[in-house]
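## retry 2 of 3
previous attempt timed out at serialization; input unchanged, resubmitting
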Amino acid sequence: MLISHRVEGTTLHVTLHHHLDITIRAAAALTIEDLVHTHRPHHVTVQAPAGEPTPATLSTVLRAHHTCKALGIPLELTGSTTAAQRLFAANAG
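## retry succeeded, writing output
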């Protein structure tokens, strides 16, 4: 299983179980976008695998962030390194 999710109240929690590579990046991003459109949450968290994310993982999270931002839904990246958090924050703004 690549991605799992759960909804708690108005928050959609998405878990990426493995770091992504370029061959599955688009499918993962579309899956997250479909979850957002289906559940219409007020907040989204994406739990990345431990360690430094691959560029494809970060790209997927950024694409999901842009979708959420367009809908007015905040997205938070969790589980990644501090450096990845800073990179995400810099690119998400």
